[in-house]
Amino acid sequence: MLSNLFENGTESARVAWSQLPHSDEGELDGAGLLSTTTSDRNGVESLDYEVIENYAYREEQAQRGKLFVIFNAGVKWFFALLIGIGTGLAAVFINISVENFAGWKFALIFNIIQKSYLAGCLIYILINLALVFSSVYIITQFAPAAAGSGIPEIKGYLNGVDVHGILLFRTLIGKIFGSIGSVGGGLALGKEGLPIEGGSTKYHLSSRWLQGFKSDRDRRDLVTCGCAAGVAAAFRAPVGGVLFALEEVTSWWRSQLMWRVFFTSAIVAVVVRMAMGWCKSENCGHFGSGGFIIWDISDGQEDYSFEELLPMALIGVIGGLLGALFNQLTTYVTRWRRNYLHKKGNRVKIYEACLISVLTSVISFGLPLLRNCTPCPDSDPGFEIECPRAPGVDGNYVNFYCSKDKEYNDLATIFFNTQDDAIRNLFSAKTIHEFSARSLLTFLVMFYTLAVVTFGTAVPAGQFVPGIMIGSTYGRLVGIFTVNHYKKLNIEEGTYALLGAASFLGGSMRMTVSLCVIMVEITNNLKFLPLIMLVLLISKAVGDVFNEGLYDEQARLKGIPLLESRPKYEMRKRTAREACGNQKVLSLPRVVKVADVVSILRSNEHNGFPVIDHTRNGERLVIGLMLRSHLLVLLHSKIDFQHSPIPCHSTGGSRAIRPNFSEFAKPVSSKGISIDDIYLSSDDLEMYIDLAPFLNPSPYVVPEDMSLTKVYNLFRQLGLRHLFVVPRASRVMGVITRKDLLIEEETENSATMELQSTSVRGQRHERRRSAAENGGDLERPLLNGLLVQHQR
């Protein structure tokens, strides 16, 4: 994937280079530039996770004391608290709204069908259609970025790619109200969270005390907290949310972030628990004590025998096959939908969602009508489940189109119901033979097809709950055959439904650790932990044979260039120089004319430019990297323009550098300033800019013959956007070992903990003495040297 990006970047650079006037100052021989920069045609842009240690940054850091460090850490924890509270309240609102809409809908329909099933069917279709229409209208007209699950976009953001619009406030609002309409409307999809980061200048939420969170690095931490909080709120699984963020979406992790993410998930769990306690007092309408996705099976199967491992392993194989097939089918359908259907405009998207809503309503209402009712089982003295249940009340054994009182419709029990209640029925214990194999197979085929067709429509859509529905259906089907084969009384079909749900999620999403913990947390049963681990490992292994995970496939369809955890095998045979190509690198002189900067920015879409200068003996020297966004800020502000092409004396007191470091930050999830938005007069175009105070003087550099595999790992693990490729160095200034990085106070016993040093270290004091005799040039940082060398 990376090699393709490099080849595409090489081609675009070659076209841009052919359109530029070539000069000796504009060409840089013997060096290359690797980047993940993508064009605006794909609607994505790389993020700058690297710290730009320019003069403005160093000045700002020098003014900050220990009090600011403590304050900054406190603000980060405060934001984690706000994210946890906000996500928990959003989840409570969504679940209460969905459950009340569903409760009112089913209560009304059950009252109507007592008189006329035809009228009940029409009302049922119209209610679902109205809810789905509200959802798709919000998405198409108000928040297009809220469509889908949002996980591929968030995964791309944490991987270093910004998809415009995913972190805007309107996206959060669209996600909340769109989920209420789509899930309440009965579509074959689930609720999915999307994190949001505040402080956008677009909504006038900027503040001086928030300036420390304008960098992409700090936003990455907030988005990670929001991602974990969303999963924790959806499943009441705080530990599972943390592991989901770690395993599935993040490309970079550290221990400090782990603490904040776990704190955020814990706050979500507390908020959700408090809301559930308040709703138990009948303050939430139809919500009652349910609604949040948790299915307690602690009173289910007590133990399992060795003979059951074979059918359980079979569930894992089925999950891997069906999960891989689901990924492939959704890829085909999504590609066709994007290439042919959605290109026709928002009106077609609305028609499509409404048509799928009508189809889903007809199937969920009509298929149970074709199923013969089943007599209720003989109730034991300790049997607490009512059969049949009263109309409009959630539970097992639904009386739907039955001629007798003591009968129930098993297909309506899972079809004509909310997904949460249907899963609860499939997971339920002590309900052997509640569902027939024919009904389960019918539901599996129809719901599987509906899930494939619905996935990719212009509504908020999660895949966790539909995946659990599909997996629990064939898991319960395998459980029926197991019960009939082994003739044991202690086998529960609900246990196999749980294993089926885990296997399908593992076969589709290819997660193991986080899914295992989530399934344990939502079922409240640790006894089945080894079995869940078994089916997850099998399903993931089977699915990996055919294709990649669901979110990776969807990210590729959306044009999000993810850097996977492992480089391709072919990269071992290539070098960094080969990845760069043979084109000459477009560079800038240290003092550049404003007209030249405007010409370069208009003629290409590069986001980083090497800056070159000349030493005293006339040798050309690469002094750093200048970002396109920083050039646009300088052009827009105009305060650093100068009349002379001579480098400025920034540290000599002649004039101060006015822009602070926070002014160079890109707005949240937007394209920022464009060259077309900047007005420059003819006098402005004749002026100059000294780029030395604003460039990154210490970009990451690799030798040209380094293998592309090592380059890939370095690029991804450091979260880089640009990487210089230079010729092999002619000399070594020194060697850094582990001890050089352990900065701590020396004690009398420090000698006993010293690590083995290299022979180069023994020359350190000699180098320092010789440097002092030569004026200290070797010890002075490059940036400071550039800013003061013209004062001599």
TrEMBL record:
Gene3D superfamilies: CBS-domain (3.10.580.10), Clc chloride channel (1.10.3080.10). The chain crosses the membrane at residues 67-96, 116-139, 222-245, 257-276, 309-330, 440-458. It is a multi-pass membrane protein. Residues 752-761 have a biased composition (Polar residues). Residues 752-778 are annotated as: Disordered. InterPro entries: CBS_dom, CBS_dom_sf, Cl-channel/antiporter, Cl-channel_core, Cl_channel_pln, ClC. Pfam families: CBS (PF00571), Voltage_CLC (PF00654). Residues 695-752 form the CBS domain. Keywords: CBS domain, Chloride, Chloride channel, Ion channel, Ion transport, Membrane, Repeat, Transmembrane, Transmembrane helix, Transport, Voltage-gated channel. It is found in: Membrane. The keyword Membrane applies. It comes from the Eukaryota. Belongs to the chloride channel (TC 2.A.49) family. PANTHER family: CHLORIDE CHANNEL PROTEIN CLC FAMILY MEMBER, H(+)_CL(-) EXCHANGE TRANSPORTER 7. This is Chloride channel protein. It comes from Hibiscus sabdariffa (roselle). The lineage of its organism: Eukaryota, Viridiplantae, Streptophyta, Embryophyta, Tracheophyta.
